[in-house]
């Protein structure tokens, strides 16, 4: 007979809340840093020097064709043998940044490559230097164009961060595992954690859709796409 | 004390990689069949199918695959089904794959011009005939590149089965690390083997996509 006891899990809500906050924190830091890495790499691939574009290409392909869990294990278990000691939290952030950076690079590159040439020529004819052309004319509308893909990728990275519990980073899945070890309610505790992940995913998606036009690329850019 | 040479490590990883491949095939074929069923239920406009399938897709795309694996593992046990890691991983990855493929394929069907549906209707074709002779063949052509691309996601997804004790490439890497204390070498080899599996498939998917775009 199936007897479920969700109360035994919900009683431990402080652990779940801490875990959810931790997951959100991991996601926020990696989204900011990983997004910046993605913009830099996207620029390198779309308009950087050939050697740099090739180097970034290798990085992007290596990351996109290996599982996140292996990247995480390599960073957390593998790097210490080179003398780099990392806490689970730092290893998690690095892995998420490296992972998101590779996917974001491809997304940003697609946005940059779709910039109409006339806009760049117009900006140059106004005597803007290359840095100004990229940061003021090319990048904002490019980010506006690819924002939905970027938001999806950030949500995917957040859901992927459930794996970080495997190296004892204290995020949401780790909290679920902790509750399981206290009361042996494995199914219930993972079901509730999964429901929280679903809510977090909806929240992060809504938040980024709202925040993007306001803070990242400007309303006019979104309207003009 | 047994000494592991680099070749020993690679050989053992290669042996384990078989199970990564087998699990990927199970998930891909099983997920393809279930996904096709979901897609057809949606296209046939079964009452409630739209809502149920959309919810199903949202559920699997909005939650971590790792949690889905744990739920399959603990959930099947609740119903008194004897769960080996094989069954739990197979079921979870099949459902995960089916949700993504159903959504990818729906996009492909939506890309077919309305006129094709109307023309098929005006010829009084049944739903089955429409699918087989008009919509299916056209959707299939559009669907091949993204479907091949998603196979890479499935292969990478099987790495998570290591967490519930399924011995595939990643789990073998962990076990060999525990025996050799050479995590750097072992995980680098694991990553390279995944790359060797996935990169040709993503490159092929991209080539298909380019030639498809050129054809239009």
Summarize the structure.
The complex is a heterodimer of chains A (225) and B (216). Chain A is mainly α and 225 residues long. Chain A has helices spanning 7-10, 13-47, 50-64, 68-78, 88-113, 117-125, 130-160, 172-183, 186-216, 219-223.
Polypeptide structure, described:
The complex is a heterodimer of chains A (225) and B (216). Chain A is mainly α and 225 residues long. Chain A has a single domain, classed as MetI-like (MetI-like fold, Orthogonal Bundle). Chain A is elongated. The mean pLDDT of chain A is 91. Chain B has 216 residues and is mostly helical. Chain B has a single domain, classed as MetI-like (MetI-like fold, Orthogonal Bundle). Helix content of chain B is 81%, strand content 0%. The model of chain B has no long low-confidence stretch (mean pLDDT 92). Classes of the chains: A mainly alpha (225), B mainly alpha (216). At the A-B interface, helix 3, helix 4, helix 7 and helix 9 of A face helix 3, helix 6, helix 7 and helix 8 of B.
Q: Number of helical segments of chain A?
A: 10
- The CATH topology label of chain A is MetI-like fold
Total domain count of chain A: 1
Global shape of chain B = flat
Overall mean confidence score, pLDDT of chain B: 92
CATH class of chain A: Mainly Alpha
Structural class of chain B: mainly alpha
């Amino acid at each position: 007979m199936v007897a479920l006891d969700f109360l035994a899990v919900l009683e431990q809500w402080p652990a779940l809340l801490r875990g959810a906050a931790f997951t959100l924190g991991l996601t926020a830091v990696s989204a900011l840093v990983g997004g910046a890495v993605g913009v830099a790499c996207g620029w390198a691939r779309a308009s950087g020097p050939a050697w740099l574009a090739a180097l970034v290409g290798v990085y992007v392909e290596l990351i996109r064709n290996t599982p996140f869990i292996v990247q995480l294990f390599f960073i957390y278990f593998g790097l210490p043998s080179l003398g780099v000691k990392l806490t689970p939290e730092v290893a998690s952030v690095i892995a998420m940044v490296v992972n998101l950076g590779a996917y974001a690079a491809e997304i940003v590159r697609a946005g940059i490559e779709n910039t109409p040439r006339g806009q760049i020529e117009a900006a140059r004819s106004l005597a803007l230097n290359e840095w100004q052309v990229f940061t003021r004319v090319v990048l904002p509308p490019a980010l506006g164009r690819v924002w939905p893909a970027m938001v999806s990728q950030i949500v995917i990275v957040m859901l992927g961060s459930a794996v970080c519990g495997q190296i004892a980073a204290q995020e949401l899945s780790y909290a679920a595992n902790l509750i399981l070890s206290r009361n042996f309610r494995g199914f219930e505790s993972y079901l509730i954690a999964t429901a929280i992940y679903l809510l977090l995913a909806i929240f992060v998606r809504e938040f980024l859709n709202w925040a993007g036009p306001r803070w990242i690329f400007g309303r006019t850019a979104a309207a003009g796409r | 004390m047994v000494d592991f040479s680099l070749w020993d490590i690679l050989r053992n990883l290669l042996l384990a990689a078989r199970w990564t491949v087998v699990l990927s095939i199970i998930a891909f074929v099983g997920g393809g069949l279930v996904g096709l069923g979901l897609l057809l239920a949606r296209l046939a406009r079964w009452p409630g199918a739209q809502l149920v399938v959309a919810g199903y897709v949202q559920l699997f795309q909005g939650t971590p695959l790792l949690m889905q694996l744990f739920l399959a593992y603990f959930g099947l046990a609740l119903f008194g089904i004897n769960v080996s890691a094989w069954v739990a991983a197979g079921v979870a990855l099949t459902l995960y794959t089916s949700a993504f493929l159903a959504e990818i394929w729906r996009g492909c069907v939506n890309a077919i011009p309305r006129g094709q549906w109307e023309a098929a209707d005006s010829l009084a074709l049944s739903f089955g005939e429409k699918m087989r002779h008009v919509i299916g063949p056209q959707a299939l052509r559009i669907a091949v590149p993204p479907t091949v691309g998603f196979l890479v996601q499935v292969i990478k997804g099987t790495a998570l089965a290591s967490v519930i004790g399924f011995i595939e490439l990643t789990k073998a890497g962990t076990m060999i690390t525990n025996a050799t204390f050479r995590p750097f070498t072992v995980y680098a080899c694991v990553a390279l083997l995944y790359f060797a599996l996935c990169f040709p498939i993503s490159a092929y998917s991209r080539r298909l996509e380019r030639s498809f775009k050129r054809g239009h």
